[in-house]
Design brief:
Blueprint lengths: L2 E4 L5 E6 L4 H10 L5 E6 L5 H12 L3 E5 L2 E6 L6 E2 L1 H6 L7 H8 L1 E5 L12 H9 L3 E5 L2 E5 L7 E3 L5 H11 L5 E5 L5 H12 L3 E3 L5 E5 L8 E3 L4 H14 L1 E6 L7 H10 L2 E5 L2 E6 L8 E2 L11 H8 L5 E5 L10 H6 L3 E5 L2 E5 L4 E2 L2 E3 L3 H12 L1 E2 L2 E4 L2 H4 L5 H7 L4 E4 L1
Parallel strand pairs: 2-15, 3-14, 6-7, 10-11, 18-19, 22-24, 23-25
Antiparallel strand pairs: 1-25, 1-26, 3-5, 4-5, 7-9, 8-9, 11-13, 12-13, 15-17, 16-17, 19-21, 20-21
Helix pairs in contact: 1-2, 1-7, 4-6, 5-6, 6-7, 8-10, 8-12, 10-12
The structure holds uridine-diphosphate-2(N-acetylglucosaminyl) butyric acid (EPU).
Length: 416
């Protein structure tokens, strides 16, 4: 168990390198199941979730070699089409092996993930899409079992643009017979990265990144060498740090085009951002202004940005109303922000955040990846010391969180 110690910091000055996206690389790793042979993934962040996905692939019979921000993954002709509970429980994203296993091996046995810190997280849309593609889905002993001798392309209309359901449907459809159309598909940058990876493997996907994706099934795919897209949520985290602590930084390798709504919102709050060479420049020199925030699927404001925006609003001038439209239970860090002196009232999926001039450091606990990072952002703008217990949650999604913050002058350290 480790604790992150954060002391009042700022102005932050310098450059922060942004790594590959967690929410892309995990799906690319799952997609390697789709073809026999050796893949290379580059710009891979050194984070716990990547190691766990590596454990899952290894369990399934793949070989995973870890290099310098790279993975070499070798997929044999036959894999064990199973994701056990110990691994799925650790990381819900394991569910994305369902589509590729089914497509290539005709069966998949994946433990049901259950809820998590955001509240219930059903997978009904994933399963409905796979059933519509021709899979037979049953449940037994906490596992979902999916079988299909041959998937067949069809028209899928997702009830909600779920990221995971779109990814599972896409990875199943690439080897299906005939054409699949996924309507109301998720449009995230990571999804477009997955589609581009699959197309390099020989898939025939059009429209990824828009809400209608068309997939013409092919018979086989081949391994490729691919560089993972930049992590917009990691970039957002350091933008929030600059907003809360003040300063001027360059986020090297961040892709501003994947963060336009956030950049607009930050601009309203007083954080100036603009594209800079291979990255994004950001500056905040004055107390932030409050804004209202409403989370929506991409390209709307991501739910993952919300804890970071709430942390910034706690010290902004005015009142901000925050509405969570994706995960009703994603407020667990709020009580800890209140313990740090924030003025926040939550009511179902809304929060009213009244900015205070200064927070006051306190012992708190990271309930999940983004909330842990948000507590650290709040700690930068607090008097005294903030000690964030369970900092291992932050390691799931951030490589060298402490080093990157220290690199721009933040007073943070790790106590193991
Ligand atoms: N939903 C259903 N049924 C389903 C699938 C989703 O009701 O079958 C609901 C969910 O309960 C939620 C909404 O649809 O209310 C959106 O869920 P989605 O499926 O889009 O999310 P996800 O694929 O489970 C990914 C990211 C999350 C991110 C969300 C939303 C990964 C590994 N996870 O989750 O990222 O918050 O999309 O953008 O890609 C994180 O990085 O810390 C993280 C939690």
């Amino acid at each position: 168990m480790s604790t992150l110690i954060v002391r009042p910091s700022g102005p932050l000055e310098g450059e922060i390198p942004i790594g590959g996206a967690k929410n892309s690389v995990l799906k690319l790793m799952a997609a390697t199941v789709l073809a026999e042979g050796t893949f290379v993934l580059r710009n891979v962040p050194r984070i716990a979730d990547v190691a766990w996905m590596g454990d899952l692939l290894t369990h399934m019979g793949l070989t995973v070699e870890v290099g310098d921000h790279a993975l070499t993954i070798t997929t044999p002709a036959d894999v064990t089409p199973e994701a056990p509970y110990e691994l799925v429980e650790r990381m819900r994203a394991s569910i994305v092996v369902l589509g590729p296993l089914l497509a290539r091996h005709g069966e998949a046995h994946v433990a049901l993930p259950g809820g998590d810190d955001f509240g219930p997280r059903p997978i009904d849309m994933h399963l409905k899409a796979l059933e519509e593609l021709g899979a037979e889905v049953t449940f037994e002993h906490g596992f979902v079992h999916a079988r299909a001798a041959q998937l067949t392309g069809t028209r899928l209309l997702l009830e909600f643009p779920s990221v995971g359901a779109t990814e599972n449907a896409l990875m199943a459809a690439v080897l299906a017979k005939g054409t699949t159309v996924i309507d109301n598909a998720a449009r995230e940058a990571e999804l477009a990265d997955l589609a581009s990876f699959l197309n390099h493997m020989g898939a025939r996907i059009r429209g990824a990144g828009s809400s209608t994706i068309t997939v013409e099934g092919v018979e086989t795919l081949h391994p490729v060498d691919h560089t993972v897209v930049a992590d917009r949520i990691e970039a957002a985290t350091y933008l929030a740090a600059v907003g809360a602590a003040g300063g001027e930084v360059i986020l090297r390798d961040a892709v501003p085009a994947h963060m336009t709504m956030l950049v607009q919102k930050l601009g309203e709050m007083g954080v100036r951002c603009s594209p800079d060479g291979d990255g994004l420049w950001a500056m905040a020199r004055h107390r932030l202004r409050s804004v209202d925030v409403s989370t929506l699927p991409y390209p709307g404001l991501a739910t993952d940005y919300k804890p970071l925006l709430v942390a910034m609003l706690t010290v902004a001038d005015g009142v901000g109303i925050v509405t969570e439209n994706l995960f009703a239970g994603r407020w667990r860090y709020v009580d800890d922000l209140v313990r740090m002196g924030a003025d926040i009232r939550t009511e179902s999926h809304h929060a009213v955040v009244r900015g205070v001039p200064r927070l006051s450091g306190a012992p708190v606990r990271a309930p999940d990846i983004r909330a842990g990072a948000a507590l650290a952002v709040a700690g930068l703008a607090a008097e005294g010391e903030t000690a964030i217990a369970d900092a291992h949650h932050i390691d799931r999604g951030y490589e060298d969180f402490v080093g990157k913050l220290r690199g721009v002058g933040a007073d943070v350290e790790r106590r193991d």
